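yo

u said u wanted the structure for the complex thing, so here. seqs first:
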Amino acid sequence: MRNQLLLFLFLLIPAALGQTNVDFGLELGVQKWNIRGNEDLFLSQYNQDDGPVLQNFWLSWVDIEGKTRLLDRLRIDASGFGASPNGSVRWQMSRKRGYQLKGSYTRYAHYSALPAFANPFLEQGIVPGQHTLDQKRQLFKLQLELFPHKTLRPFLDLSWNDRRGPSQTTFHVGLDEFRLLSHRNEQENEWVGGLRFERGAIGGEVSQGWRRFEGNGLDQLVADAGDGNSLATVLGNEVSLDNLDRYSRNTAKTPLTHLSFHGAWSKFRLIGAYNYADAESDGSEEESLAGSLVSFQLRRLFAGRTENIQNKTRNPSWRADLKMEADLGGVQLEADFGRRHRQLDGLAMVQTVFLQATPFRGGTAQDISQLLETETSLEKEDDTLRAGLAWRASPNLVFQTGFSISKSDIYAAADVAQIVIEGGQDGDFRRRLEKFNAAVSYRKGKTRLGLDWQSLHADEIVVRTDFIDRDRLKFNSSFDVFSFMSLRASARWTQNENPLPEISYKSEEKQYDFDLDIHPNESINLLLNYGYYESDSRISQRMPQDFSLQTSLYREDGAQYGAHLLWKAGRNKLQLNYIGYENTGLLPFDLYQASLRDDIELSEKVSLILTLSRNNYREDEFVSSRFTGESYGVFLNWRP
Amino acid sequence: MKNHWLSHSSILCLCLIGSAVFAQDPSSFEPSEDCLECHDDIPELINKTVHAPLFEVNCESCHGTSEEHMDEPEADNINTPLGGLGQKVCLSCHQSSVHPKHMSGTAQLTCSDCHDMHKHQKPNVALLSDTLDATCLSCHLEHRSIENRPFGHKLGRGGMSCISCHQAHQRPGQVLTASPEQMCLNCHAEKKGPFVFEHVQGVVGDCLSCHQVHGSSNPKQLTRTRVSQLCLECHSQTTQPIFGSQPPAIHDMRSPRYQNCTTCHGAIHGSNRSHLLLK
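structre next:
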């Protein structure tokens, strides 16, 4: 609340700065939602609430006479604060040849509680299930550049990212899952300072940054969840949990170095960039639990467990790129080479004590201590070489073609300590990918046509879903049918294939979209659109329980149609929107959104805004997930 | 939270004070009197834009001089910097900070396709002639339907717009270094790691290997409807030398328990203790 008050005071600053060329607007009001059906799913998709909302605020202030020494330009845009769980404000201020300051503050509320998705408690009627969360993320960014448009320009970028809030997860033991309530608190700060230089056609940037991440989490057993979700007993013993407390901390520090330059000489331009980051993380975790528990790995029943974990990771990575461009009149050439390298070394020490452990066959209970040292190592290098050519055959017609070769080399070391089934978890994996693309575009007046084709071929795969061949064709066009009517159309086809035995992967995506924009006069604008999306994928997979080969099929057929009308009549500006989306794939659903907004001009500077909306979501398979959300809003728009 | 605000505000104040010391008097847009005879509305409009205080600009800076236009004030006898000409005019100042990505390829856009240089259309930013998302969607038609799928980063909510992740313009140094996962991790910082045991991201793929970021018909913006389907398509045994292993036989996929892999493998984005990403 205090932050929102500070923010509001900040928005009022311009009022104190004078009246020189101020453009200012404020749209504020209240909204009311009425939800029928599954409110969790509504919040997961829309996350709206009742109450006052700052719909829009903008301010553009320019001191053209230079009377204010602190700044001569200020721009602020804000929206969404209040009952809407997401809000943002951005500002830019500057003083000619003095500084440019850009900043933003954004707040996101993330709610996810999906009743039927990956829910191990669905059969017990417990919804939502495991992966639910109700968290807030705040982002704050500040970018300051001194002496803009001078040769040397120092800059400082700051960012702060904060996520916190409750969530629900599970703890698995024996045949049971136990619900845990988690609370996460994570922050990341980044400071980057550097210098940009610009002299004629030559320029560049050098910067050094520091990033620090700090996170901690607390997981605890939900009050009534000690019985778990399985009625089965293990050797006649019921598995239950009396308490569980888990506290984890993690810190990551990353110094960042960036160098880049660009220069143009005659018809040539050279761009180069180098980035280095060396992330190091340290963490620890303490867990204690008690109950009537079982470990199949130890072949014992036990009454409690304490666990302490210490972990450390180092991850140096760098990336270097060089690009050359040549503009030879009607022909443009470009070529670039980039190398990306990443190394990861991780180590964790896990000390576990099983309390009062009794062998399955019976015997004396005793504490058993386990020490696990587990480590990992990864090294990855990617090289990419590209070359391209664009030929302007006429002022309206451009042909383009390009070719690239990418090589990936991944070395992964196996973690011997934790491997259950050997194979496929370590080794050296290589892949070479060749890509060819060609495109043509035509543009004359408001008529545009574009066709873009690319084809990729790989020699190997690294994971099963990698393709051997991939083709993509894109088409887009727009033209005026009449002076008051324009038509836009686009299409995209993508095909992936991997014919290797035991995989036989094939996927196909098609998407077609059309926009018809009708604007017979300045008072009426009607936009009609239609989109169709089709996705089909099949891949063979071996089922773990019996090694049988089965085909995994995925299908999605979605169609969207929409109508958006803007009608200015007298003192009224009416906006009507309707969107329908129907999916007949593996997860069949329909959704409809209809909204109406009427801006009624009360005076030259004040408008009254009335809003109505209705959102409907209907899944075919899981009927109880359906919802209808209706909203009503009254807002005032003030433009002093 | 309070400490962050205080420290950031202090820095902001110090920077502003320092900058003010170096500041010089600005100059404004000063049109020629000859132009004003007909175009008297332009100075008021342009003086409310970013172009007003930054440079010693006048009408001729962009439109050139034309005696013919003065004699016969027709639109076609003065430089109207649209199309390729507009690009040259704008980039004569903006060249250092803008890489013309959208101006090449099949897009062949010019600055005036998205921007109106003479005025800002309230409440649009950056002199855009329409709202930001509408500007992008007028060419990227497919996103109108993608963004309306039930699970996704819905545009227009909480300041989420196309430029939250994409840069329509880039500094030259950024042109070569933008990578897909970095855009996601700017917000989702907790998934950046590094983790002792990583999964997919930065190893054999990126966030897009499992998620449809613009909008998805599947919960959690996944590329598949069921978790087990998504996992098993990679983690299934073959005789080919590939990365990823077969789950053990206790994972009987006919049982609902094992169809939700993330019930046990909860640390799916990376773990600091478990190779199997158990927590």
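Chain A touches chain B through 195 residues (CB under 8 Å). Residues 2-12 of chain A form the longest helix (11 residues).
cya
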